[in-house]
Structures are given as structure tokens and as C-alpha cells.
Specification:
alpha/beta; Nucleotidyltransferase, domain 5; 6-stranded mixed beta sheet; two-stranded antiparallel sheet; 33% strand; globular; DUF3800 domain-containing protein
Length: 180
């Protein structure tokens, strides 16, 4: 694949084959309002655009069509009562395909004694994890895409703004966008 065309809040974005893309989503509530799930986290998957069709688009579409009847809707774990076949299929997918996975979480028992918000702290921790993972790829562009949400995406993106990755003697700007 030579490029990935992706519709974002900035319009159509075109990512070249040597772009490392991380799709990130939040889980839980940053104010720990759900007593059944008193955590907050940021997690997602990363891939090189050149590998997107082989590792993500084709296999994921096949899995979703086979186990969920459609690829069109996002899979939000909190909204699905998974069957054993679906759990096994997802488990096999995540074990079988070589793309990056990254995540950071915190729970309500943690005491934040800094001036930074939980979102800023997790945003910085996520960026550190992305840098750790990014050392295993050769890329010339680094993009984070986050699902649009009225609650947290702008604050997450702000926490990642103006960041750069060091690659040898060069620095690569961390770009980011939201998608619907």
C-alpha cells in the first residue's frame, strides 16, 4: 500500500507508506465515576501504513464480518455481550498479527499530587510508551489518531501537542488528529 487516505476532523489526511500510525481510544472515566470500572486509560494499536491492508484492514474486516456481522460499527467492549466464539476470534487475531499494541491506565486509588491532570499524566506516559514501541519501526512520519469524543479527546491531544521523537540525529514531530 502506497498511502492511507483517512478522513479526520482536519479533512482528508494522506499518510505515506513510511508513516507509523497509532489509533488510540480512552477507556473508563478520567474522574473514576463508574464504580463498576474505576479506572481510566488510553490504549490502542499501531501499524506502518505499508502493512495496513495485510495486517489490519483485510484480517480485521474478515473477523468482524464473520463474528459480528458487520465492519461498519466500532467495537466498544462495554457495549457488547461477547460470545465465546467472539472472544476466541479476537484473542486469535491479536495473537496472530504483528502490529503494535500500547496502553497506559490508572485507577481511582492513585493519588495525584502534581499540578497536572490525570489526562496530562496519562498522555505523557502514553507518549513515552509510543516512543518505546516506535524504536522497533523505521518511519519518517508519526501520527496519533484518536476517536472523537466530546469528553476527553481535545485534552488528550493538547497533552500530546508540540512533542517530538528523537531518531538518531533527527527529530520527528508527533502529529495527531481526531476521527468520527
Amino acid at each position: 500500500m502506497d498511502q492511507l487516505n483517512f478522513e479526520t476532523d482536519n479533512g482528508l489526511e494522506i499518510f505515506g507508506p513510511n508513516t507509523l500510525v497509532f489509533a488510540i481510544d480512552d477507556t473508563g472515566n478520567e474522574r473514576f465515576k463508574d464504580p463498576a470500572h474505576p479506572v481510566f486509560g488510553l490504549a490502542g494499536c499501531g501499524f506502518m501504513v505499508i502493512d495496513y491492508v495485510r495486517l489490519i484492514d483485510g484480517p480485521w474486516s474478515n473477523l468482524c464480518n464473520r463474528l459480528f456481522g458487520s465492519v461498519e460499527r466500532p467495537l466498544h467492549a462495554s457495549e457488547i455481550q461477547f460470545t465465546r466464539d467472539q472472544i476466541e476470534g479476537l484473542s486469535e487475531y491479536f495473537k496472530s498479527y504483528e502490529f503494535f499494541r500500547v496502553g497506559v491506565t490508572t485507577r481511582h486509588e492513585i493519588s495525584n499530587e502534581t499540578e497536572e491532570s490525570i489526562i496530562d499524566l496519562l498522555g505523557n506516559a502514553l507518549l513515552a510508551r509510543l516512543c518505546d514501541v516506535g524504536q522497533w519501526a523505521i518511519f519518517d512520519r508519526f501520527v496519533i489518531i484518536i476517536e472523537a469524543s466530546d469528553r476527553v479527546e481535545n485534552r488528550i491531544l493538547r497533552s500530546l501537542s508540540n512533542k517530538e521523537l528523537e531518531r538518531g540525529d533527527s527529530r520527528i514531530k508527533v502529529e495527531h488528529s481526531c476521527y468520527a
